[in-house]
Design brief:
Elements lengths: L4 H6 L5 E5 L4 E6 L7 H11 L5 E6 L2 E9 L2 E6 L4
Parallel strand pairs: 2-3
Antiparallel strand pairs: 1-2, 3-4, 4-5
Length: 82
């Protein structure tokens, strides 16, 4: 199995991604039960748009982590699922 540079950067297989250039927001989908490397995920989206301010990740169909850029830097918030 080969990995893509995106997968290598995020330390996980990337199944799908979407980016909104108006809102500066990214969404990344990973396989069920998997998560990405925070700094790699941020670096990936910053290469797409240095102005990115939010990134939502999904593990399978479930929301996983919301990354937000603040004045003091990036923060990670686990997304609660019911």
């Amino acid at each position: 199995m080969t990995t893509s540079p995106m997968s290598d950067l995020m330390q996980c297989s990337l199944e799908a991604m979407v980016y909104d250039f108006v809102c500066h927001a990214g969404v990344a989908h990973f396989p069920d039960g998997k998560c990405c490397d925070m700094s790699g995920c941020i670096a990936f989206f910053e290469k797409i748009d240095p102005k990115v301010v939010t990134i939502q990740t999904y593990s399978g169909a479930k929301p996983d982590v919301l990354y937000r850029k603040r004045a003091e830097g990036w923060t990670a918030h686990l997304v609660a699922t019911a």
